[in-house]
Amino acid sequence: MQQTIDIDLQDIQKNIDDSLSEKDFKKINDYYGYAVPAILGEAFCLLRGQAMITRERHAMTYLGALTGLFDDFFDEKKTSKEHIKVLLDAPDESNAMNAHQRLIIRLFRHALAHLDEPEVLKSYCDQVYDAQLWSNKQSEHTPLTREELQQITCVKGGVSFLYYRTALGPCHDKIEEQMLYNFGSISQLENDMFDVYKDMKNNVQTLATTAHHIYTLRTYYTKLTEETFALARQTNYPKANQQKFLRFAALIIARGYVCLDVLEQAARKSNGIFSPTTYQRSDLICDMEKTTNRLKLLHYYAKTSI
User: Beta-carbon neighbour count of residue 69 at 10 Å?
Assistant: First the structure.
């Protein structure tokens, strides 16, 4: 897969402009383009009990490579929502205004070419687009309620997982679809917990940055986990497949519990009331390379995967 992505990047770099940076290519090569198929793709395949074929792996790699670039539309590039919609509805390089947009179109077209039902992907792209627009409220000065933040978190993560799932064809049934939506919600909440320092500095409202008590965050995280596991056990896949998938999911989810412990420890500095603006960066960063955190990861994995 490395070769396929590299061909695209080398070609686009011939006419590069300041809309693309080394950071963009790093996100593709070192993270999204390979982490998505290697982690999510493999998790999906454990459930269905069938390894990815080459076409599916290519599709998921392209969808992963698009992730950071598409996020930048809203976070850094400040591209108009009207023009983003044009690029999604008519992914033709003639509609691109710069190298960043040309690369997105090229990757998107490659992803579509590797799918049996490209219209399903376009439908989920529209939902991801809507979720991104909604999530812009997180950067506005108007305070969001906990319920609003829960909805935004779930939609952002849920539709993203279903977007990636299109690489393997349609979901088996509505139960699998809801289960993956919930799993995506957990993943988004976990990301927000790990990013609490960065989001706090950027004045981004998330369930993590606005939490007053970490136990409420932990309770919600556990609720989503329990619902996801219950749904996974209701799918029509063989029980052995369900168990393999849940063990894989438990390892991902366990990281979130380790992070919750770090945030809870920080809250002890302010009498149990979580107040991220008053802490040092080191208080809010969950370093998974620390031996203590690795041991906690094993503890929570064993506890979650029961």
Answer: 20
| Residue 276, domain member (yes or no) | yes
Closest CA relative to residue 194, chosen from 247, 253, 135, 270: 253
What's the rounded Cα separation, in Å, for the pair 84 and 43? 30
Would 183 be classed as within a structural domain? Answer: yes
* Global pTM value: 0.91
Residues 5 and 145 in one domain: yes
| Separation CA 182–CA 191 (nearest Å) | 14
Does 196 share its domain with 275?
yes
Domain identity same for 117 and 190: no
In a domain, 71, yes or no: yes
Structure tokens at 140: 């506005």
Angle of helix 99-113 relative to helix 54-75, nearest 10 degrees, comes to 150
Return the structure tokens found at 194: 């790990």
User: Within its chain, how far is the Cα of 276 from the centroid?
Assistant: 23
**Coil, strand, or helix at residue 279?**
coil
pLDDT tens-digit map of 154-207: 999 999 999 999 999 988 899 999 999 999 999 999 999 999 999 999 999 999
3-state secondary structure of 260: helix
